[in-house]
Amino acid sequence: LLSHFSSIGFWGLVNNAGISTFGETGWLPMETYEKFADVNILGSIRTTLAFLPLLRKYKGRIVFMSSIIAYFTLGNGIYSMTKAAIEKFCDALRLEMKKFGVQVCIIQPGNYARSTKIQPPLSAEEIWSELSEEEKAVYNKEYVQERANFFNSILNEGSTNGNEVVDAMVDALTSPAPKARYMVAKLKEKVLVFVCALFPTVVMDSVLSYALSK
């Protein structure tokens, strides 16, 4: 593969693959955490390392699909965790690649669940059936139903204008001066990120706790 591209040039790599799920920390088995780390974090790193020699040679660009959920979480901490990890990987890579003329860009979409179908709706029964006996002893079906309704309502609010994210990816690959980060999100989502970045943690926790209680 690398020898094939060496003859025609290799200019850009987009790390887009990702999986998502919903669930409180103790609801998910260790195998799920390992799978998410393997796909969402290590998958992008594996691809990057494989093409790094060509990207340095041709002064190419590397684009990573992150999410505003890297800054906060509302019921999908496992997905948030992987996106936060990718952000830090990109921060290191971006600085290291400057001396080679390789630019590293991060796309940070808001809620585009209806465009990507990355997360199908989850029923309370489906979640409950997967819980360990220990978790079932702590929670009840009513609570699980409440959480499922909340998360599914977020999915239903997702934008259908996926082209907005694609446009950001194209700009990152083709612009003479691409941004390090492209936040493609609604105003209220950007406000959440702003609060998370600039206010004390206790403020953000209060905001998110209020949202989760609704």
TrEMBL record:
This is BDH protein. The gene is Bdh1_0. Pfam families: adh_short (PF00106). It comes from Cisticola juncidis. Belongs to the short-chain dehydrogenases/reductases (SDR) family. The chain crosses the membrane at residues 62-79, 191-212. Keywords: Membrane, Transmembrane, Transmembrane helix. The keyword Transmembrane helix applies. It comes from the Eukaryota. Gene3D superfamilies: NAD(P)-binding Rossmann-like Domain (3.40.50.720). InterPro entries: NAD(P)-bd_dom_sf, SDR_fam.
